[in-house]
Write a structure and sequence with these properties.
8 strands, mainly beta, single chain, four-stranded antiparallel β-sheet, 0% helix
């Protein structure tokens, strides 16, 4: 038997390459990236809010950090994003792409 599911559009935006979806069970938020434009998107299904943070560089991936917040791998190094504080800072100053 095949089960059918109906999908619902919950957020529409113009992205070049949407990647790296990460669900945070603790905060109940969905994180994802537009890797080419360097944007991190945060969707909160509880209140329907969407936030966008721009890294200013190509974004490779997103990961959850044990201390909270997000680790971002970018073209010019690694960043740490604290979405609740609206703070983004270098985690490691290292050029990983020419």
């Amino acid at each position: 038997m095949i089960a059918f599911v109906t999908a619902e559009l919950i957020y529409q935006t113009q992205v070049i390459c949407g990647e790296s979806p990460v669900w945070d069970e603790l905060s109940q938020r969905l994180y994802w990236a537009d890797v080419v434009n360097g944007n991190v998107y945060i969707f909160n299904p509880v209140n329907g809010s969407n936030k966008t943070y721009n890294t200013g560089q190509v974004l490779g991936s997103i990961t959850l950090c044990e201390r909270g917040g997000l680790g971002l791998s970018c073209a010019k190094g690694f960043l740490f994003l604290e979405p609740d504080a609206g703070k983004m800072e270098p985690a490691i100053n290292q050029e990983i792409l020419p």
